[in-house]
Amino acid sequence: MNLPPDAQKAIEKAADRGNDVEIRKKGGGYIILEVSKKIIYRSSDR
Fold this sequence. Notes:
The chain is an alpha+beta fold. Helices cover about 25% and strands about 30% of the residues.
């Protein structure tokens, strides 16, 4: 997949923040989604 430089920069910025990236097809093009997960609860017994 050949991505334009602005798309590559968006992916690199998301990765630098420690988040995952999803690339999906949308019509004739694509979209880039930044995926971040946050722990909102952890039980006391590990």
